[in-house]
Amino acid sequence: xxxxxxxxxxxxxxxxxxxxxxxxxxxxxxxxxxxxxxxxxxxxxxxxxxxxxxxxxxxxxxxxxxxxxxxxxxxxxxxxxxxxxxxxxxxxxxxxxxxxxxxxxxxxxxxxxxxxxxxxxxxxxxxxxxxxxxxxxxxxxxxxxxxxxxxxxxxxxxxxxxxxxxxxxxxxxxxxxxxxxxxxxxxxxxxxxxxxxxxxxxxxxxxxxxxxxxxxxxxxxxxxxxxxxxxxxxxxxxxxxxxxxxxxxxxxxxxxxxxxxxxxxxxxxxxxxxxxxxxxxxxxxxxxxxxxxxxxxxxxxx
Amino acid sequence: xxxxxxxxxxxxxxxxxxxxxxxxxxxxxxxxxxxxxxxxxxxxxxxxxxxxxxxxxxxxxxxxxxxxxxxxxxxxxxxxxxxxxxxxxxxxxxxxxxxxxxxxxxxxxxxxxxxxxxxxxxxxxxxxxxxxxxxxxxxxxxxxxxxxxxxxxxxxxxxxxxxxxxxxxxxxxxxxxxxxxxxxxxxxxxxxxxxxxxxxxxxxxxxxxxxxxxxxxxxxxxxxxxxxxxxxxxxxxxxxxxxxxxxxxxxxxxxxxxxxxxxxxxxxxxxxxxxxxxxxxxxxxxxxxxxxxxxxxxxxxx
Amino acid sequence: xxxxxxxxxxxxxxxxxxxxxxxxxxxxxxxxxxxxxxxxxxxxxxxxxxxxxxxxxxxxxxxxxxxxxxxxxxxxxxxxxxxxxxxxxxxxxxxxxxxxxxxxxxxxxxxxxxxxxxxxxxxxxxxxxxxxxxxxxxxxxxxxxxxxxxxxxxxxxxxxxxxxxxxxxxxxxxxxxxxxxxxxxxxxxxxxxxxxxxxxxxxxxxxxxxxxxxxxxxxxxxxxxxxxxxxxxxxxxxxxxxxxxxxxxxxxxxxxxxxxxxxxxxxxxxxxxxxxxxxxxxxxxxxxxxxxxxxxxxxxxx
Amino acid sequence: xxxxxxxxxxxxxxxxxxxxxxxxxxxxxxxxxxxxxxxxxxxxxxxxxxxxxxxxxxxxxxxxxxxxxxxxxxxxxxxxxxxxxxxxxxxxxxxxxxxxxxxxxxxxxxxxxxxxxxxxxxxxxxxxxxxxxxxxxxxxxxxxxxxxxxxxxxxxxxxxxxxxxxxxxxxxxxxxxxxxxxxxxxxxxxxxxxxxxxxxxxxxxxxxxxxxxxxxxxxxxxxxxxxxxxxxxxxxxxxxxxxxxxxxxxxxxxxxxxxxxxxxxxxxxxxxxxxxxxxxxxxxxxxxxxxxxxxxxxxxxx
Lengths: 302, 302, 302, 302
What we know:
The first copy, chain A, is an alpha/beta fold. In chain A, 46% of the residues lie in helices and 12% in strands. Chain A contains 12 helices and 10 strands.
């Protein structure tokens, strides 16, 4: 992977669906063009926001193909290969390499929660055989285990392991990881939750894998640039807008799926792609969709 | 499925492996014959003890084929189809049906944790298209969500949903489920943790999916029969032996994987099958294996 | 403490209150007489059901005095002294001894969660200076830590530590504790959740600290006796009734406080004592109270 | 309280002890003078770092008296009154007011975990009768509940509730709280974990309740000032030093108590006060103490 460390805004793309096992291919094209037009620095498909785990492997393969073809090398494509099975992770990674993706991203096996030495064992095996560089994906709320900072540092001895996306939302932890990696050159430190992207970039982070960048790519790109420039006159109003998005769009439903449904519903209201999530989730119905529409107007970004 | 509700000891078979992606086919044959000889009432493959999530789909298919062929209808075969993707669950279920299995078992999608209405939605969809009867699999420590008793009752309206395996270890919850299902005929109520099998059978449960029955099938079958017969003169010494197994064999390692490694190591010491677990776990080395051997001698069952 | 191990039904008494810091003294008298009349084998005041942690120390002292005076040695009185401060625990224990109580009960310090060696340290210190025998109180949902079975066995070397009340609801754990204590004479093994009292007694447990025994003492006493006698003709209908209580009375509210409010509301409907809980909880209002009343009629125990 | 919102570095003072129930009075004097000399903006006694919950009420009262007397109004004194009992919280608050403290700090009742409406009820009652302004204390790892941002906004309608200390370490949450409070004037937004103090101040937070400021008060004061001034040439090396402290001093032991023991041990090595923690913790012995000493030298702050 050139241009290491990877920096900037890398949206975790939603997977546009017509139904649980059919890609919304036109929607995907529009979505990819929409975020590229917004100036993002890379794409991450098949992450948590991409509902990877809920999709069939056939559909995941189709998504990798179509996305890479649509992007045509205009910016780096990262592909989620998180799986409970090492063999299936490898298969996905090879598919990604064949399609011309730039890197893969892997969260720990998420059924049996591994201990730290078992994480080292798993990722050492995975990295050894991978055709592409690998980003670690820290997502303890879903995987029940967090990479210890020292585990990350140890794993970075594999030259194939080139960065981490931390979605723990733990600000102290993110700093501990930055500190543990202080002497490792070119290791990319990306944060998940968009609410804390600016502050981590100010303190040395490399960017964000921000879900809202599906809907408003330039908002997050602008905030990132302002943070890199340490331009607080721009940071403060942009951060306020990011918080408004988080506050209005991700809290409409009643369950953990509210965030995902909010992003997909907003994209649908904006005419970009379908709002259908994969089973076990259902899309928002009229009442919630109205709320999303009103909120988009209130944010002033419809 | 005939003979409803399913009752008795249904061992959650370990998956004998030569390496992370190669079945120990001879070991599997010996294991199947070993537990059948011990008098068990069914087999459950591709559960948590079977390390299903760590295996490739190719290997899972091979395991289903070989097990069904080996069993030749001598007793019911249940196949775990737990998956985060509805499509992959269905594919596994169809494979199971094609091979002549008797039922499938499914734990909730385990990456994104669903809410109760989302569980209802998921299982209603799954049950509708299934070629085989379905057992719910309650495993909150791994899936981050438990079936509410009322959700189970509601799902049992699907005539395809025929039972539950509860591995929560929560004794109050198991009784609440029994109570919620009191008027539903022929719904099978099976418990996971072998330490509480006898007491749940005494109070109306239908049996156990007991990991130790891989190693000592007749011990668990005897305890089950004694519990059905309410014969406390037999229950008490057998329960003591079961606790000895749990205490000596499942606590040798340092991580959550100790139970699995203990079972596989004991099977290997007894010459039944290989002790290799799937990545990310490693098998026990000499020191731990020695301990397992000594413990087997102490238990008096080597 | 004579008559070791303590056996039977020991209700965790609610604390009848006129307001958050005023005892309902008449209600307390009626409650004590009500449960004694129901045949219970001991009383446990200032437990979780007794809302101990929400009460002022002054009120706790008054409750100890009044309860011991009312009981007049007719049956053992156990006093909860769970506190985050060793000094305050000791002070409560001395108050209990002065009033003639028979034993104290202590859950681990519940702010900072201690590790196992720290539990050993804490309880060794506590036991050394106590004027009364001590029951350990396992309540991980509230204290964030569970006693390892081996910790309990180690602590039982203090002759002052005479039993455990396990409110984890974990049936496998309870059996592991029973097994760890198999060679320790006279150590009392009591279970909290009433739904699993019968089955633990059948397998060798000594009884239950069952919240419903505040309302229906003889129901739980009868079930306990039936379990001791292994009389399944009596056990099954009584267990069904116990499940009905659990299902109808503890699920009316929307929060974790539903159980407590349900017990207090039922006692108030039966005219035994006030239904006022201590801050931060509020009592049930008309609608929920009506539901409790209807449920009591349905149970046939009003 | 004048000078609202409270801003800057407010160390959560450790409680110097000779034994579990005896104050190290000389140590306390030295500690207070040490942090005041370091330029801190306030003191917070009886917080988590102050081991409040492990101390007797007598000792807590003595600590309040001595600290207020020693400070003599030179800077604001905040007193932790977190308690499971509303009555005991009030009593502590009155003691604090009598001694001339400036505000109190309260974490949610930490035995029974309250729901959000119950938090509103509890704090509305508490605030109504308090003689001093109140800071909310968000500490979900210890109390099992977090204040929802909307709960904080609602509670801020009580003019007595003047700020929050957030020790969740959740960076997204802290921004959500800032956003929820955007139109509430003079509400103090303080963060607990020192690793994220600088970044929250850069984004609009008011300061930190940083445990390391017990040992190195001027380090945290300097970092705070640099963050207020948005002076990145100073921020980056100071943040690095703060991470070094966190990395070297708080990770020596094996349990959750490592942080507390590390702070106390470092203070003892520096000759400021005793390293004795309250039961159930033990102080570091020679080997760990040596490590702390070496680390202090490595940090260059001994």
